[in-house]
Design a protein that fits this description.
It is a single chain. By secondary structure, this protein is an alpha/beta fold. The protein has a domain of about 220 residues: 3-Layer(aba) Sandwich (Rossmann fold). About 35% of the residues lie in helices and about 20% in strands. It is built from 11 helices and 15 strands. The strands form 5 sheets. It has a 7-stranded parallel sheet, sandwiched between helices. The longest helix is centred in the middle third of the chain and has 20 residues. About 40% of the residues are buried. Bound molecules: nicotinamide-adenine-dinucleotide. Nicotinamide-adenine-dinucleotide binds next to helix 1, strand 4 and strand 7. The site of nicotinamide-adenine-dinucleotide has 30 residues, from helix 1, strand 4 and strand 7.
Length: about 350
């Protein structure tokens, strides 16, 4: 017996009045697609789900993802396929062949500078979102998980930024694409009953992150004792969420059938200025790097960002990892291992 989210129930004993159901969801192996699977968050998520014995297919076009983010040897329940999700033909061949239970659509053009410099490439990601959703609808996917972003809130008008009460002020192409993506996801639910969960990720950091993102960039510069440049006075604030907190919440949301057809902020609610972040990284790495101020960015650098993460904390049942401890964990990580020796690339 199966419910709408694909969970299985075993009828153990049944009389006219009593039915005993044992929930055996946790015993079931799901087929899961992760787009952007050679990226930072996608590759960490794949590793977790592989360990939980699900069958994972990971797709990436290596535009910002790296081969060394893939597992060093491919277990039987993992497959990697090089694929551009914005190409319908390529994606449909994979999704029609596999008929996934769940899809995590994490592929996107990312990075502040890259998205400002390449707005047309960013807008092209709308094709990928439509491709993924159409194929989810046509292949019986039970729920699609869409990686949106804190950027959809744009320049802040309310603090903390709440999933339902804070208006979406997105003006830049990257944020507009995420906003349109959310609208498509909700419309596929309305017209085709495709279940969804929208994750609005706030700055997330951890091992294997590319230097497109502020923490890994500062660490790279500090370790090389090179100048750390920050835009403007550096008093703009961000919150920083350690990757393990993001993943634990994601897995709970998947397994517990939480946040179905709803939106959730995934991020920390402890604000820090970019200047203090740079100082902390310099201190922790014993670096001689100097902090240099560049002119403020004309656009794309919000003054503050802070999520209302009440829902996330309820799901985790605890506070998030403090930044200082998360940084220690990142700094412990040595150079990544060699690229994969086997498996399909
Ligand atoms: N890391 C954060 O702090 C953060 C914050 C907000 C939102 N997000 C979102 O989370 C998702 C994952 O981000 P990340 O931090 O892991 O970035 P990332 O760059 O490490 O991962 C994105 C991956 O998508 C791949 N990709 C891009 N376009 C593709 C395409 N057309 N076809 C196939 N693969 C493609 C890239 O090669 C890369 O491996 C993205 O959608 C991003 O917008 C991340």
């Amino acid at each position: 017996m199966t419910d709408s989210q694909g969970s299985s129930f075993l009828v153990l004993h049944s009389t006219r009045h009593i039915s005993i159901f044992i929930h055996i969801n946790s015993l079931r192996m799901f087929k899961i697609l992760i787009t952007g699977g050679a990226g930072f968050i996608g590759s960490h998520l794949a590793k977790k789900l592989i360990n939980e014995k699900h069958f994972i297919v990971s797709l990436d076009n290596f535009s910002s993802g790296k081969r060394e983010n893939l597992p060093s040897s491919f277990p039987k329940n993992y497959q990697f396929i090089e694929c551009d999700v914005n190409n319908y033909q390529d994606l449909s061949a994979i999704m029609l062949a596999h008929k996934f239970d769940y899809v995590f659509h994490y592929a996107a053009v990312v990075g502040v500078q890259r998205t400002l410099d390449n707005p047309l490439m960013v807008l092209q990601d709308i094709e990928g979102i439509k491709n993924v959703l159409n194929l989810c609808k046509n292949t019986g996917v039970k729920r699609v998980f869409f990686s949106s972003s804190s950027e959809v809130y744009g320049e802040p008008v309310e603090f903390p930024q709440n999933e339902h009460t804070t208006p979406l002020n997105s003006k830049l192409p990257y944020a507009i694409v995420k906003n349109i993506g959310e609208a498509f996801v909700k419309s596929f639910k309305k017209e085709h009953d495709l279940d969804y969960t929208i994750f609005r990720f706030f700055n997330t950091y951890g091992p294997k992150q590319s230097a497109d993102f502020v923490i890994s960039k500062f660490i790279k510069l500090a370790r090389a004792n090179e100048d750390i440049t920050i835009y403007g006075d550096g008093l703009q604030t961000r919150t920083f969420c350690f990757i393990e907190d993001n993943l634990e919440a994601t897995i709970e949301i998947l397994k517990g059938k939480l946040v179905v057809n709803d939106v959730i902020n995934l991020g920390s609610d402890i604000e820090m200025t970019i200047l203090d972040l740079a100082r902390l990284v310099v201190e922790k790495t014993n670096s001689t790097s100097k902090i240099i101020h560049l002119p403020a960015l004309e656009k794309g650098d919000m003054t503050r960002r802070k999520p209302d993460n009440t829902k996330m904390k309820q799901i985790l049942g605890r506070e998030l990892l403090p930044l200082s401890e998360g940084l220690d964990r990142v700094l412990e990580v040595k150079t990544p291992p060699n690229p994969p020796q086997n498996g399909r690339l």
